[in-house]
Write a structure and sequence with these properties.
Bound molecules: arginine
Strand order of the largest sheet: 2-1-14
Structural class: alpha/beta
Number of strands: 14
Distance between the termini: 11 Å
CATH architecture: 5-stranded Propeller
Number of domains: 1
Shape: globular
Order of helices and strands: EHEEEHEEHEEEHEHEEHEHE
Radius of gyration: 17 Å
CATH class: Alpha Beta
Mean pLDDT: 95
Low-confidence stretches: none
Number of helices: 7
CATH superfamily: L-arginine/glycine Amidinotransferase, Chain A
Length: 285
C-alpha cells in the first residue's frame, strides 16, 4: 500500500521526508436528484433553492480531481426520491474487504442502504448486512492505521460501535460529538495518513478530546472558522488533501506539514450539510 501515484512520476525525485500518496478506491453517486427537501442537520433549510446542474458540475470536478490524482472512482446509480444519496459516505463502512451495511437514523435516507448493499454485493464484497443499531457508514467511522475511530451523539449509536468491532476485527475507539453543527464524525475529523489526523476539538466532549490528544499528539488542530466551512470534511491520500476551498487557514497548516492541499468548490452540496468527504465512500480491500 505504498504506491506512488502515476501522475507523480513526472515530478522531481521524491526527497526524503516527502509525503507519499497511496492509491485509493472510491464509490460516489452523481447528484442528479439532489435537493433540500427536509432538514435532518443544522445546515439544511427546507425549500432552499438548489441548482442541480451546478451541483453535478461541482461533483464532476471532485470526481475528476480524484481520478487526476490517480485514484479509482466507481459510480453508484442515483435513485429518484433519495435527494441525499450524493452523500455516499453514509451508505456502508468497508475495511479489509468487509462491508458493513448502514442503518440510517432518518427514514428519509433509509432507502440508500439497500442500494449500497446491492452495489457492494455485486462487486465482490460478500453479503452486506446492516448493523442492528444506527450506523451511518463513513460519516461516523474512519480508519487510522489499525484503529477505527467511531463517532456517536447525533447519528451512529454506541451499540453499533461494538458491532463494527466484532464484524471487522479492528479496535473501535468511540468518540462523543457534542456540537450539532458537526453531526457526523467526518465533519470534525479526517485521517491525514496511517498515524495522524486533522480535527476540530470544539466538536468533541472533553473526554473524547483527551483521547484524541493521547492517540494523535501531533494532530493538526483546525480553527472554528475552518471547521465551519466543513474544512474537516476532507480526503487525504497521505500526500494530497482534497478539501473545501474556503478552508484556507487549514490549507496553510497542512502545507506547512508537507501535505499538498487540493481545493475543491462544492457550494451547492454544502446546502445539504455535506462536503468532499461526504460525497466519497472509500472501498478498502
Ligand atoms: N443531508 C445529509 C444528512 O444530514 C448530509 C450527509 C453528509 N454526509 C456525511 N458523511 N457527513 O444526512
Amino acid at each position: 500500500m505504498t504506491a506512488v501515484l502515476p501522475g507523480e512520476r513526472l515530478s522531481p525525485e521524491p526527497m526524503p521526508g516527502d509525503r507519499v500518496a497511496v492509491r485509493r478506491t472510491f464509490l460516489m453517486c452523481r447528484p442528479v436528484h439532489f435537493a433540500v427537501e427536509y432538514a435532518i442537520n443544522a445546515w439544511m433549510t427546507p425549500g432552499t433553492q438548489v441548482d442541480t446542474d451546478l451541483a453535478v458540475r461541482q461533483w464532476e470536478a471532485l470526481r475528476d480531481t480524484y481520478v487526476g490524482l490517480g485514484h479509482t472512482v466507481h459510480e453508484l446509480d442515483p435513485v429518484p426520491g433519495l435527494p441525499d444519496m450524493v452523500f455516499a459516505a453514509n451508505g456502508a463502512f468497508v475495511v479489509d474487504g468487509v462491508a458493513v451495511g448502514a442503518r440510517f437514523a432518518h427514514p428519509e435516507r433509509a432507502g440508500e442502504a439497500p442500494a449500497h448493499a446491492a452495489w457492494l454485493q455485486a462487486n465482490g464484497f460478500g453479503e452486506v448486512r446492516p448493523t442492528q443499531d444506527v450506523h451511518e457508514g463513513e460519516g461516523d467511522l474512519t480508519v487510522v492505521g489499525d484503529l477505527v475511530l467511531a463517532g456517536t451523539g447525533f447519528r451512529t449509536q454506541r451499540g453499533a460501535h461494538a458491532e463494527i468491532q466484532e464484524r471487522t476485527g479492528r479496535p473501535v475507539v468511540g468518540l462523543d460529538l457534542v456540537d450539532p453543527r458537526f453531526y457526523h464524525l467526518d465533519t470534525a475529523l479526517f485521517p491525514l495518513d496511517d498515524t495522524t489526523v486533522a480535527w476540530y476539538p470544539g466538536a468533541f466532549s472533553p473526554g473524547s478530546r483527551a483521547v484524541l490528544r493521547r492517540l494523535f499528539p501531533d494532530a493538526v488542530e483546525a480553527s472554528e472558522e475552518d471547521a465551519l466551512v466543513l474544512g474537516l470534511n476532507s480526503v487525504s491520500d497521505g500526500r494530497h488533501v482534497v478539501m473545501p476551498a474556503a478552508a484556507t487557514g487549514l490549507a496553510e497548516q497542512l502545507a506547512q506539514r508537507g501535505f499538498v492541499p487540493v481545493p475543491v468548490e462544492l457550494g451547492e452540496l454544502l446546502k445539504g450539510g455535506g462536503g468532499p468527504k461526504c460525497c466519497t465512500s472509500e472501498l478498502r480491500r
